[in-house]
Amino acid sequence: MSEGRRRVYLVDASIYIFRAWYSVPDTLENADGQLINALHGFAGFLAGFLDEVKPEHLAVVFDESLTSSFRNDIYPPYKANRETPPEELKRQFVFCRKLVESLGLAAFSSDRYEADDLIGTLATQLRAHDFSVVILSADKDLAQLLVPGDMQWDYARNRRHHYEKVPDWLGVQAGQVADWLALTGDTVDNIPGIPGIGPKTAAALLAEFGSLENIFNELERVADLKLRGAKRVQNLLTEHREAALLARQLTGIALDPDMQAGVSDVQRRQVVKQDVSAVCEQLGLGRMTTAKLLRVL
């Protein structure tokens, strides 16, 4: 990280909410008998992170575009392999956002752009104000957003991936991640990629050509590479060219043209502890979790 610049922390909320949904027992309920296990786990994550880092600039980004993303217009099967979250979880996303806002933290969401896109938009706009960016997420797709001075932090596992170290993590440069995913596919998002081309072959192709566009511009060279099954790889690329170019429209992070954010939008706001305590009580968070949250204000 660049010590001379301000840092803004961009939190991919869904990762931590889903993780809590699956890891915290589903016996935790509020006074109305509604499940709050994901909320409880997410609140614990927030309390721990805010206590450790004490960030001055922070945004928490929520995903509301599971079936309404612009990518579904391009490719209807996009993320079709994912089950629709149950109502008990959808309700807890609302609870989590209410908690975030009560703590004086900025929250962003869109029904057309995914959390990745909003994080990319925020990162781009805030770099113009001399911020370096720390993205809190385990999602490898987000590595494509990193530039020198940035870092992606899988907070739960304490894995920190600085821009310069992305090749050690994924095998390609940060700026090649979207192309790499277009070649290999991404089963998590139901993006097929090119059958028969795995991560190592895709990385080798990008190391040689630099980008997906250059691979197809110089396709005749692929068969001559010192690459196992090079002729077969060339044939696969030729056969599945259109599929790869379609996939590239899905794997690349887009910027939301309607979203504008400046320094004041991600500045932590002063809040009244009694108000936060009241929201915690309303949501059903216990005394211990509430106390942890109040200590970090």
Q: What does it look like?
A:
With 297 residues, the protein is of the alpha/beta class. It has 2 domains: 6-169 and 255-295, 5'-nuclease (Rossmann fold, 3-Layer(aba) Sandwich), CATH 3.40.50; 174-251, 5' to 3' exonuclease, C-terminal subdomain (DNA polymerase, domain 1, Orthogonal Bundle). It is built from 14 helices and 6 strands. It has helices spanning 13-23, 37-53, 70-74, 87-102, 115-127, 166-170, 177-184, 199-209, 212-217, 230-239, 241-251, 263-266, 273-283, 287-295, and strands at 6-12, 58-61, 106-108, 131-136, 151-154, 159-162. The mean pLDDT is 95.
List the helices and strands and how they pair.
Elements: E1 6-12, H1 13-23, H2 37-53, E2 58-61, H3 70-74, H4 87-102, E3 106-108, H5 115-127, E4 131-136, E5 151-154, E6 159-162, H6 166-170, H7 177-184, H8 199-209, H9 212-217, H10 230-239, H11 241-251, H12 263-266, H13 273-283, H14 287-295
Parallel strand pairs: 1-2, 1-4, 2-3, 4-5
Antiparallel strand pairs: 5-6
Helix pairs in contact: 1-2, 2-4, 2-14, 4-13, 7-8, 7-11, 13-14
